[in-house]
Design goal:
338 residues; alpha/beta; 9-stranded mixed β-sheet; 11 helices
């Protein structure tokens, strides 16, 4: 490609800004930059050190000092990796300016917040993505394909677990007004999303839950943040699902992450290896036999962000499937008794 053609291609790429470039934000930024699909136009993080570190990835990007200054950069898209309390409001501000959004989970602290973002994206006809990243693992994609094709027969039981032996380091995670909740909204959001995504987002007929803090049961609708939770979901398609998640559990390893699906003609399992947050295996079961579906390495962490960037570059706009974000938030509200 000639220099003139390269310049024309660069000029035509969507301009994307990055709001929050801490550990997760920087990782997603790198994944987006590596696609080559968009131009990194500007960066804002309250920490000058983090902003400076991110700017090394794309030295041509402006480093600004506010969300408003970001949006003044003639953006086509905005990647949001700020504290949870800010997600919905920041997404709405960007979408109302005609800017597509890719947001860290949760999209909102409640169903109403998530629904307001989706409604704004619909009215603005702008692309909206949420970093529900476990959908993008090779193992979960293969399991979903098996279920969609009917290879497991009628799926009737699902068990999902996400135990984090450490828990978050930032204080705002432990303030329900800022976070929306504890381990359920932080980790359980992935489990609820995986369950509904794999089985086609049926209605949830019933939710029962128990929340705990430091080993003692707490009110679901109280101000205390849970560090252990278990919930049972009954879906209108007949599936019964058990979900368990925690922070700071005496788990014997860094993390326990599993998703098991049982059908009338077989089963499938997705689980982390040796306590890893990144490495997973997936297997298919037939009676007492098993077949390996996926093994590491699998560089899945940034795929949701990269896919959003590629969709933005392709000119895609509002996707009606964004309603799934509201469905997930609704289940979380019901787990919290809201």
């Amino acid at each position: 490609m000639s220099e003139a053609m390269q310049l024309a291609a660069a000029v035509s790429r969507p301009r994307v800004g990055f709001l929050g470039v801490g550990r997760i934000g920087l990782h997603r930024m790198r994944a987006i930059v590596e696609t080559g699909a968009v131009e990194t136009a500007a960066i804002f993080d309250p920490s000058p050190e983090m902003a400076a570190a991110a700017s090394k990835l794309t030295p041509q990007a402006a480093v600004v000092n506010s969300l408003e200054a970001l949006l003044d950069q003639q953006l086509d898209g905005l990647v949001i990796a700020s504290p949870s309390a800010l997600h919905a409001a920041q997404s709405i501000v960007a979408l109302e300016r005609g800017v597509a959004v890719f947001c860290q989970k949760p999209l909102g602290r409640t169903r109403d917040e998530a629904a307001a973002v989706v409604d704004t994206a619909r009215h603005a006809d702008r692309l909206l993505g949420v970093d529900l990243s476990y959908r993008y693992t090779d193992g979960m994609r293969q399991i979903r394909d098996l279920i969609v094709l009917g290879e497991l027969g009628t799926v009737f039981a699902v068990d999902l677990t996400f135990h984090n032996a450490y828990g978050p380091s930032k204080p705002w995670f432990y303030d329900k007004a800022l976070s929306g909740g504890g381990c359920v909204i932080d980790l359980g959001v992935h489990l609820v999303d995986l369950l509904l995504w794999v089985v086609g987002f049926p209605e949830v007929a019933r939710v029962e839950s128990r929340l705990f803090s430091k080993g003692a049961r707490i009110r679901r609708d109280g101000d205390e943040v849970e560090d252990y939770a278990v919930a049972t979901l009954e879906l209108t398609n007949g599936v019964i699902a058990r979900i368990a998640c925690s922070w700071h559990l005496q788990a014997g390893c860094d993390a326990v992450i599993t998703a098991d699906f049982y059908g009338t003609e077989g089963g499938a399992s997705f689980r982390n290896i040796d306590g890893s947050y990144l490495d997973f295996t997936a297997e298919r079961y037939r009676g007492t036999e098993r077949q390996v579906l996926a093994l590491p390495p699998d560089a899945w962490g940034g795929r949701a962000a990269a896919t959003w960037a590629e969709r933005l570059a392709a000119g895609q706009r509002f996707d009606p499937e964004n309603e799934c974000f509201v469905a997930v938030a609704d289940v979380l509200d019901r787990i919290y008794g809201r």
